[in-house]
Predict the 3D structure of the following.
Amino acid sequence: MSLAPGSTIGIIGGGQLGRMLAMAAARLGYRTIVLEPQADSPAAQVANRQIVAAYDDPAALAELAGASTVVTYEFENVPVQAAQTLAARVPVCPPARALEIAQDRVTEKSFLNGICVPTAEFCPVDNDEQLTAALKKFSGSGVLKTRRMGYDGKGQRVFRNMETGGFAGTCEAMGNVPLILESLVAFEREISVIAARGQDGSVAAYDPAENIHREGILRTSTLPAAIAPDTASAAKQAAAKILAALDYVGVIGVEFFVLADGSLLANELAPRVHNSGHWTEAACIVSQFEQHIRAIAGLPLGSPARHSDCVMENLIGDDMLKVPVLLAEPGVMLHLYGKAESRPGRKMGHFTRIERRR
């Protein structure tokens, strides 16, 4: 059953993704309420109401559940217990299980391998001795990551062709938290697929974007990606398999490495709208944000077709100085996030250049 016009959608998280979800919900006639501890958050600036409280505050969760017809979230580090508490009172989309899987890199990769979506090889690491053994297994190379809470390249260390030994203190330097060592992958490019699954099980997948990261932060997403049609199709099929396995409702982002032969290794999944899908608001009739609202509201999914080629670029820190020039450039769609303070590494907005589809 679809949400009636004027219904309220709860959003956990007040960042830029929540902001764009609230804007999309308003276009479809829905109201939004945001749970976010930071007052005047980017999402709260465009939502109907904000609850200023911690994401796991019991009174705030009860207030959110009582005010919402359905609840969603804009980032994957929402406390799983909070999502489960809400789900006992109001539908939560995507499901809490998707959060639980995405929050732990070992759990995530084990899940993907379990549904026959291949990933890089990996080893759980809890101490320096296990790190030494894992590096020996991977010939002295690998990417050591925190299992939980990492984003935009944070909580990572790369080892290349190092002798397996002499790593005393590494785990302590990483915070003495559970870690994962992933084998290095000789990939040609990185791509991502944004896909949605509706309440009726229907799936709509956007064309894969080719992504470039610098210092662990997404810089650009380009459409079309320089990949073969079979590779694009395989990426969409893998995303659909993940959605079905999770009984998912809403939009998901799935990142892949493309190998020299065109085959794919899944890197990670994000149970939410995704930075690498921002281009959809400029190059598609139905953006990823509207698609997510459609899915969780029980509405028919829109077409993911792309009417233009495009390049989306994040505005990070002092990139904000480019804004006057970008505003004067034809064929550019600019979106600023309403953040008062510009800092190095902070995403302040994005822009998308579009041109006629080739």
